Amino acid sequence: ILNVEQSPQSLHVQEGDSTNFTCSFPSSNFYALHWYRWETAKSPEALFVMTLNGDEKKKGRISATLNTKEGYSYLYIKGSQPEDSATYLCVIRAARGSGTYKYIFGTGTRLKVLA
Amino acid sequence: GAGVSQSPSNKVTEKGKDVELRCDPISGHTALYWYRQSLGQGLEFLIYFQGNSAPDKSGLPSDRFSAERTGGSVSTLTIQRTQQEDSAVYLCASTRRQGPTDTQYFGPGTRLTVL
Questions:
Q1: Each residue of A19-39: pLDDT tens digit?
Q2: Quick one: which of A55, A11, A15, A14 has its CA closest to A35?
Q3: Which residues of A touch B (CB under 8 A)?
Q4: Mean pLDDT over residues A74-87, rounded?
Q5: Starting from the edge strand earliest in sequence, which strands make up the sheet with B65-69, in order?
């Protein structure tokens, strides 16, 4: 059974601070990693999908890196704003044989940015 | 274009009653997933439909849970004889295909409360 761990579980930062969180996963059967942002009372929204070791993605003030050999990804937020407050979900796409895949979700990191 | 829609958005029911939750995926998406998030927990996979293949029901917690997808489009998740532990947010997601990098598009969820 593949386990996807995210840390920290939650954090509070001041507006303007930069922050980062971690997603750890077993590297066996790995195919892709997705980051989602999930605001309260809204649908999870896709941020990035990464597949290759060393991948780096950037979207505005948010960026992510991927290390498939050691099994981790970092999500960075530069100059946090109150609108960044959300739960950030890491999702692994893993092979389960017969050419099929499954999504394995982390429990998320809840970010609160204080004005 | 329209995203994934779910109905109802909120459902309050009494213990022992049956409930039906509906998901309308994005048109043309071949894969559909049901998840639930109980309070303080991560997303839990329930069931997955891919085209005309037999659904993957491996995540259904008990035989009180069932789901169907008619015509490869709309899906209904049915919970019979609801219990208080069924209280959760039930999320539906769809993907265009079943590849490793396909992004899941989530609906807004149905919040189920069993009294």
A1: 999 999 988 878 899 999 999
A2: A55
A3: 31-32, 34, 36, 41-46, 49, 51, 89, 91, 93, 95, 100-103, 105-108
A4: 97
A5: B5-7, B19-24, B75-79, B65-69
Tokens of A57: 């993605």
B33/A42 CB distance under 8 A: no
d(CA A17, CA A15): 6
Tell me the C-alpha to C-alpha distance, in Å, between residue B62 and each of A8, A55, A74, B21, B89: 32, 40, 36, 16, 17
Nearest by CB to residue A43, choosing from B50, B99, B107, is B107
Residue B81 Cα, gap to closest chain A Cα (Å): 27
Enclosing H/E stretch for B54: none
Position A54: which residue type?
G
C-beta separation of A81 from A113 below 8 A: yes
